[in-house]
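Local shape tokens

___
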Amino acid sequence: MSRTPEKRLGPAKLRKETRDWLTKKTIPHAREIAKDLEDAGEDVHDLLAAIDELEALVQEGPAGNAKRTEKAAA
């Protein structure tokens, strides 16, 4: 059973450097580890779901800033 909450978390407020590090280093390395574990016969479904959730949060982040900018311009 997955421990993932049923509702999604809001966009994360991350610095550009942090977002880049997650996108270019952490997420790809976590996917490599998951592939290695899967090749070794481990169940990685929950791990992959968590990685996908992290990736979605990282990708959604800038949208929150755009909304604030629109409000300020109005």
User: Anything to note?
Assistant: The chain has one domain: 16-73.
